TrEMBL record:
Compartments where located: Membrane
Membrane topology (UniProt): Single-pass membrane protein
Protein name, per record: Hydroxyproline O-arabinosyltransferase-like domain-containing protein
Domain of life: Eukaryota
Chaperone found in the keyword field: no
Transmembrane parts of this sequence: none
Key words, A-Z: Glycosyltransferase, Membrane, Transferase, Transmembrane, Transmembrane helix
Naturally occurring in which organism (per UniProt): Pyramimonas obovata
Length: 160
């Protein structure tokens, strides 16, 4: 019985496979979340790993596409990837050097905007920053530029 290394990748599955894993996935996620040690160890990715374990327990396997999704800043180029997933903080020096685990002089982290709408346009990363991060910011800027009333979208928004 193998465990697919699916972790944070998007998963496409048939509804029959979802039916096989759904209750186990739910139960594992709740048990892990209510266990302080597990919750601390797994944090915000807890339910993703609960899915992975539930799939294994229920003999649901996945066709893996190793370069399916790029995840800047860890993937430095988008070559060969199909989709772009932004989840990690992107921190760089003013010279474009990646600073993992340390807030950089240039920074983009979607969690910085949980209670407000990001500015449009976002400041472009410094020269030397990986092409994946530069493309991510350019794509966000392109999208927000064509959305009407970008600056008022968050009015009345509450964060719980």
């Amino acid at each position: 019985m193998r465990m697919d290394p699916i972790g944070n990748s998007p998963v496409m599955l048939h509804k029959d496979d979802l039916a096989k894993v759904a209750s186990t996935w739910h139960d594992m996620a709740v048990r892990m979340k209510t266990d302080p040690e597990a919750d601390k160890a797994w944090g915000w990715v807890l339910e993703m790993w609960a899915y992975t374990a539930a799939a294994k327990v229920n003999d649901v396997y996945h066709d893996l596409v190793p370069k399916f999704q790029a995840q800047p800043p860890w993937d430095t180029t988008l070559d060969g990837f199909y989709i772009l997933h932004y989840t990690y903080g992107n921190d760089f020096t003013d010279k474009g050097v990646f600073t993992p685990g340390k807030i950089g002089q240039w920074r983009f982290d979607k969690r910085s905007y949980m209670g407000r709408i990001p500015p449009c346009p976002l400041k472009l990363p410094p020269e030397g920053t990986s092409s994946s991060v530069r493309t991510l910011i350019e794509m966000i800027n392109e999208a927000c530029a064509v959305l009407p009333n970008w600056d008022t979208l968050g009015i009345g928004m509450s964060v719980s």
